[in-house]
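=== RUN LOG ===
request id: a7f3
mode: sequence -> structure
chains: 1
length: 281
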Amino acid sequence: LLKERFVRILVPFIFGIIAIVPLHVFVILDYYDQPLRYQPSAGHLWFLGNIFAYVLLLAPLFFYLKKYNEGKIARGIKWLFGNPLGLLVAMLVMVSEVLIVKPSPFELYAQTWHGFFIGLLAFFFGFCFVYSGDKFWAMISKGKWIFLVVAAGLYTYRYLELNLVAAGYMMSIESCLWIFSAFGFAIKYLNRPSKALSYLSQAAYPVYIIHMFMLYGACWLIFPMDLPVMVQFILVVAITTVGCLGLYEFVIRRIGFLRPLFGLKVIPRKTEELNLEVKEA
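=== RESULT ===
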């Protein structure tokens, strides 16, 4: 586990710090007519460092549960998160994080202790949800409309009465409900073989790594143009999307030594040759 996580998370994180983030820093500096300089930093990739830390912190639990898959702790996790009580526990813990850390604002999670702890809890509960198996997914699918309606109701109240700024505990509850509803609809409508989903799931990690550079590059190109704001918005989104997927499809996934730098598995040479022969045939 640690070796695989080192390769899939820490290597792209380090590569991104020294080679990817400085690219969009160049774009920002040039846009604002500032002297260009090489400035390595975690930037938008900060969460990769967090995930690696979560793996290290929770590794003892993972190893224990793998060794004692039918032990008391394992059975307790499967029972708890196989019924609605588990969802309530998860929500109460997430609310407790907000009450203890007191983030201001709630949305400021990048490179903050709030972001670290909320990510750690999400990582832990996500593991518990999957570990508990079919009972969790059956429950979450059954309650998807309830989660959606309550989440939408909380958002509507926040929009109409609070100008979108609600207390942290309310934001935490609403966030959990949106996530539960997303899980429920996904397990119902997306949990089937799909070439598109398979492709996009592979592309998600590399696109996450490069998207800020493509986004800032699109802004650098479009913002100076005398165009309506909505047209600029559409063009920036389109250029960013096409640019990210194009770079992934024609460069990152096809060049062997680049794949591990962007979190993709290395394809053995024999497998590559076999795939090429199949395509040619």
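=== NOTES ===
The chain is about 75% helix and 0% strand.
The longest helix spans residues 2-31.
=== END ===
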